[in-house]
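Retro notes, item 3 of 5
We never archived the inputs for the magnesium ion complex last cycle. Fixing that now. Sequence and ligand:
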Amino acid sequence: MSLVVQKYGGSSVADAEGIKRVAKRIVEAKRNGHQVVAVVSAMGDTTDELIDLAEQVSPIPAGRELDMLLTAGERISMALLAMAIKNLGHEAQSFTGSQAGVITDSVHNKARIIDVTPGRLRASLEEGNIAIVAGFQGVSQDSKDITTLGRGGSDTTAVALAAALDADVCEIYTDVDGVFTADPRVVKKAKKIDWISFEDMLELAASGSKVLLHRCVEYARRYNIPIHVRSSFSGLPGTWVSNEPQGDQQVEHAIISGVAHDVSEAKVTVVGVPDKPGEAAHIFRAVAEAEINIDMIVQNVSAASTGLTDISFTLPKAEGKKATAALEKIKATVGYESLRYDDQIAKISLVGAGMKTNPGVTAQFFEALSDAGVNIELISTSEIRISVVTRADDVNEAVRAVHTSFGLDSDSDEAVVYGGTGR
Ligand code: ASP
Ligand code: MG
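Structure as it came back at the time:
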């Protein structure tokens, strides 16, 4: 008997109707002879609403308590889904992350999975049940406290369980038909990709594509778990993410896989840093100690007359307060002049393994942006990606311009977005 792990995102279980629709789909898989583990996210925008609520009672909520609060969202959907399945005459049991054996480190709000011990899930499946698991959460090995895996973490839960249970496939059900060449909310002419490599998908995810989380793809690549991203609304075949295409999975030998954008980052500029050895180390050590992941970094050439330079970097907006607080603390020792915080930025990235061997991609990317009148503030590259930072206001136009310039526009159907606010 084959085992499938399915994951349903918040927009798929946004209301009672959605939960009943998902229950039917799960039961269908069970009827087709599979053992089914279904991982669920919180209903609709529940997680955002809980965060808003927490911030109303405390500007920087304590990590442990925030995790306790947020995991409630997934518990609501898992219990309701199990009820809906039972109502269809099938046996289902719901499990929290901790009950499902998702063991993490103790970093609250973005814990890493370090082990999965799905004994209770196996027993439940053996008894003939459908197992429903609350995504995005686990329990710390050391402190035994409840943790969460970071926003969008249910995908990672699903892949981790698929690996631990040796599942045949991990199906990620979402509100679009798969992975597109750009966000279909922004680019109506975005094309669905039939198959994409782990490598390109990792870069798209790192660049802001929200359809799959970076950590989830990383995990899937490490354990070689094929992911099938598809819509819970349409039932159409979606996008396969794996090492190698299988069977009739179409591979477009395009140079570029897609254009991703990200408006979740902010830019911090440390103004007037003395231009001498050790200052950058000092600044980024302080940021690292606050457990903040930074993205792009730019240091300006110092003005000869002053011997001072500016250092800018980008980071998730959600960590802006923590970063500026950490930098304020070292202001006197570093001796910089001031801090600037700018959250009106966007990052636009072009991704594709083909750019390694095709000169001119960078030039064409910059030309497309310039033709659209978009100014570039920061640039960074990897072997298979080019990213720029622009004003947030320019992002949609910039993404469309680049998508068109690289011939990615479809000439047929418009990309469909079935649900979700994209919040
Ligand atoms: N509910 C969590 C979030 O919104 C986890 C998830 O959706 O995967 O981030
Ligand atoms: Mg969600």
